[in-house]
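User: I'm putting together a small comparison set for a docking exercise, and I want a reference complex before I start. The sequence is below, and the ligand is zinc ion. Could you produce the 3D structure with the ligand included, as structure tokens?
Assistant: Of course. I'll restate your input first, then give the structure tokens for the complex.
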Amino acid sequence: MPAPWLDCTVLHGAGLSAEMLILDGAHLVLPDRVLSPGRLVIDGDRISEIGPGSDGGALAGLWIVPGFIDVHVHGLHGDDVLDGPGQVATIARRLPRYGCTSFAPTTFACPPDALEMLAQSVEEAIGAPTLDSARVLPAHLESNFMSSDYRGAQPLEQLCLPPGAPAADAVPGTAIDFTGDDILRVVTAHRRAIGTMTLAPELPEALPLIRALTSQGIRVSLGHSGATLDHARAGIEAGARQATHLFNRMPALTHRAPGLVGAVLDDDRVAVELVCDGYHVHPVVMRMAIRAKRPDRVMAITDGLAGAGLPVGSRFLLGGRGATVQEHACVLDDGTLAGSRLTMDRVFANLVTLVGVTPLDAATMTATVPARELGLTDRGKLAGGLLADLVLLDDAFCVRQTIIGGHIAYAHDVPR
Ligand SMILES: [Zn+2]
């Protein structure tokens, strides 16, 4: 039920098949402008009407933005999507409190049986959506096909070469119990559960793999890679259309060696992920990247680990390895930066307050672009006829309510 402060109007009957919800007086962040005060009407699971609202309406001072879509999230509140069956659904239930209404469960490099488990969990969660949960999207695999030199916190023993690559090219210490063919068998068997695969285009036989994946409708994202400009451009020509956590786990751009960073900043066909905690990428560099790509080609992500949403000092396991939540990020016990402790509400707030973009541009990067890139034509912006997936934020961009499909999935003042 709505929180008392919301004071929204709920109408029944009058020939309506479902409940109507009228949100009046807030700043509505529309695709091309902020309408303030605005009025948004939800009929059933869809936005039915958007127009001018009342001065001093019930929601005056609040922002209404499209529900956040996180294309790169590993875990939350101590749990990782790879921890076991049911974890995807558990994490989906927790995400609405952070304004996240759709998410792609994201894996670390893992063996085929773990991938199989994850794919089944994703299929089950997609097949049985629940009212209070974020919508589960096909998974994003930070795959086995990455550069050992740029693996970061990814486990060396889980890396392998693309199918067809000579075994002699394998880096010592990488997988011995399975091959790239074993990984692809799982992917092919669970095609609808897999949406995106991160890989390094410079690996032997990576380009045929990119072509094979994209021909199956799997989106390829370039990352965890030491690619040169030429390698990266070859990957893009083969069909890659995304870059994974731009700047992190890839060579730095310099004026004579643009590398993977330069290749994707220079090519409008490619959308880039950006971890928005202000630590993974300095706010000045975030701002430069957003200017280079324009908000229209940036997907703001959390790259959140199981430590996300936990207090500083919390301990958790990452693939059996100990990790700690630190002030700036999550760090393995050996000191390796492992991922963020971000949630999508903080991503939005950081974009506005740290980077200095407008709320409209922040909504573009947290919802509109991820929806469009993943082909989700029914969401990602506030517009009539689209799914009523939206977030009400206060003036500090903290979540007051999250509405998914017209249903109030989270309300700040209602204990759960
Ligand atoms: Zn990564």
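Residues 28 and 185 are 46 Å apart (CA to CA). The chain has two domains: 9-65+382-411, 68-373.
User: Thanks, that's exactly what I needed.
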